From TrEMBL:
PROSITE patterns reported for this sequence: B12_BINDING (PS51332)
Domain B12-binding: 9-134
Keywords: Cobalt, Metal-binding
A single GO molecular function term of this UniProt record: metal ion binding
Protein name (record): Cobalamin B12-binding domain protein
Taxonomic superkingdom: Bacteria
Organism per entry: Desulfatibacillum aliphaticivorans
């Protein structure tokens, strides 16, 4: 499932990582980002590193958001983040969220940030986008 919402540009690419079929948290984040005016490309659930990387190459987002609800999905994050970073620009940020991650895990896996829920994710994204566009 690929859902493009918002303006013409893609500010954020989001998806739930490979092996994880949970979507409610990711969907809430998408809704909050759209409500705040961001262009969001939602890749759905069970998304591979290659699918994320392809979306990054095609849309050049400012931010990629990875959702991991289960521990086995969390274990994939370092490799996925490496592949995503290789496909994107040096200024692109990778954020993680979901029940299987926290701030410490985000740091361990090489993410640029973590948010525990949808409202704070929208604030975090707004801060990153404002800093990039200054």
């Amino acid at each position: 499932m690929i859902v493009k919402q918002g303006g013409d540009s893609v500010d954020v690419v989001i998806g739930t990582v490979k092996g994880d079929l949970h979507s409610i948290g990711k969907d809430l984040v998408r809704i909050m980002l759209e409500a705040n005016g961001f262009g969001v490309l939602d890749l759905g659930v069970d998304v591979s590193a290659g699918q994320f990387a392809q979306a990054v190459r095609e849309h050049s987002p400012l931010i990629v958001g990875l959702s991991a609800f289960i521990t086995s999905a969390r274990r994939l994050l370092p490799g996925m983040i490496g592949e995503i970073r290789a496909a994107g620009s040096s200024g692109m940020k990778v954020l993680v969220g979901g029940a299987a991650v926290n701030g410490a895990v985000a740091s361990e896996v090489g993410a640029d940030g973590f948010s525990p829920e949808a409202v704070s994710t929208a604030r975090l994204v707004r801060g990153i986008v404002n800093a990039v566009r200054r």
